[in-house]
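User: Modeling request: complex.
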Amino acid sequence: MTANDPSSTSLQLTADGQLRHFLTLDGLDRALLTEILDTADSFIEVGERSIKKVPLLRGRTVVNLFFESSTRTRSTFELAAKRLSADVLNLDISTSATSKGESLSDTLLNLEAMASDMFVVRHSQSGAPHFIAESVTPGVAIINAGDGRHAHPTQAMLDMLTIRQHKGRFEGLNVAIVGDVLHSRVARSQIRALNELGAAEVRVIAPATLLPRDVESLGCTVEYDMKRGMKDLDVVIMLRLQKERMEGALLPSEREFYRLYGLNREKLALADPRCIVMHPGPINRGVEIESAVADGPQSVILNQVTNGIAIRMAVMSMAMGGQMAERNRKLAGRVEG
Amino acid sequence: MSSLKINGGRLAHTDTVTTVLIRDGHIAALGEAAGRESADNEFDANGCIVSPGFVDLCCNLREPGNGQKGNIASESLAAAHGGFTTLCASPETSPVNDSGAVTNLILDVAATRSSVRILPVGAITRGLEGDLLSDMAGLAAAGCVALGNGARPVKNARVLRRCMAYAQTFGLTVMFSPENQALAADGYAHDGLVASRLGLLGIPEVAETAAIMEMLLLAEETGVRLHLSQLSCARSVEMLADARTRGIAVTADVAMHQLLFTEDALSGFDSRYHVRPPLRSERDRQALLAGVRDGVIDAITSQHQPHDSAAKQAPMAATEPGLSTIESTLSLGLLLVERGELGNADLIRALTTGPAAVLGRSAELCEGVVADLCVFDPEANWRPDDTNLCSVGRHVPLPGQDLPGVVRLTLRDGQQAWPCNNL
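Assistant: Request completed. Predicted assembly structure:
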């Protein structure tokens, strides 16, 4: 079993290797990931103009389908779509159709019937965007904005963009991901991206209760002792710890977690002095990270947010391009046929 | 009554080409004696295997109560299409089969509409709630061949112990799918490589093995006849073999799909293969195969779970577990034979005499026995699709692939159950 899952590859890419859905980083190679980063770089400049728009998605309809609440991800997707000149529809599904008993498939088929071109989907169940792309509305470009514990590929790519901006490369980097890896879709996508882009070592640092079974198979090493794990780090990524973890008997207390796995100045001093500190947000100050570190000189947490818009613009424009190419090919086939 | 002569077929258990004569619902003669007799009808079985009809220890017929997923007529016809002549019907119906009245209802419907023999399994706890004992003796008197709790948990070890002790009083067999509820929690996939990568909620092996350990200890203490349904782990097979050595009266089965597929079937989020217990690792699959070959595992079941299409049309966590398997169980077994992973004789035994013995029955083809048999061509291929499937459930394993093994004839009580005349 390799991390390169052929079924994901054929679902996400057109026959000539263009992106048409963006569901997971599994099956996407280094060249494509680099293309996403380069495209995002070119969009960063757009955000610095006084008129922050390009016409790439003019006339296209993008529907933000958030089955799970989110502020940051949803607003950056909305801004990204608007900067690409798309028409954007925001639907908070958790409070509408599905609560009236409509099935996920039916909700989506109705939206497709409104001539939508792209769905940005966040869902609490792993694989929901795959299901939509494969079985429900294959003619609509699907962008995964986070599904269950599975993947959050735009978050991982904006993290990669941030790392590249600060380190200039991936080769030779030692990167640690600290905290609740078990429940983290972000960590799974980051581990995959870092491996594909050539990082020297990806280290996960957490107690055994917060690690998935056979986590090494994802392409990382395991360290239980954070102080030892900070050695020679170029990048440290902190994960958000949710309060429910105490109730599930995965951890004894926030205090013990902070003492052992929280990032404070003392632990950060054990890393390489140029080590950058990242966090996908929202941060819990005093639970997984000390305020002085979150706001300190090594923190790049707010750069991550800025980069989020550029990455999402890149992914949306690329996937729409692939999806349109596919549609045109099908139309041409029908005319000839 | 009419008579039928089956010519040129190879008998499954002797591997010799033999004529079979059926008269008045029974096997009247075999071999040369049969060849000399004349019959009203003859069936050419050249190139085919003549086997005792298959016996399924775990099948969901969905009637009463879940007509959108299947009914006794549709699912028993599907069974005949798959070469089965005897089905144990799961108590998980609506209402649950926890009283003689429901058992009678099932048997009444079966008497008029079923293509094959239906043996109901009664609910061991009232409403399958896992709390209170059902009227076990009454269920047995109405015709239940065993008692179990379907795929649902018994509340705790104390209730389980009393279930076993009470069943033992009447010499009843209990059937349980071992799963520790607290350890399985919200899981729906094997807690292993694929679940970790895809972020699926895992069910660890220990959810099964811990439950088996508890059940074996309680069976040893109470002396009940215990049957473990749907093993999925390598360690479970070892524990079963040890228990046998200790003299515990325990038998076990495995679903055919557990012998063919692993957790890899879920990569790409294919909820078709969302089954319970989950498909596990290759090491587990190998151990289960060895268990069947060594006879530690007595039977292979279909674990047939027909569903309407909506049950599988959702992200995996929201789908219902189960495959529609009964029409392709034989074919999947023949794939294992083709690959050299299972012998022909082991396959036939695990589908016929093995499960029959668990029920205290026999499934031999010899003079004088009831003619429950099937004739299949192991060399011919078929491709399951909407034109040839009889089950309401269309979520079959390996859709769109050519599979070996076509059932040419199924007889129940000497009556033709497949091909169905009104097809």
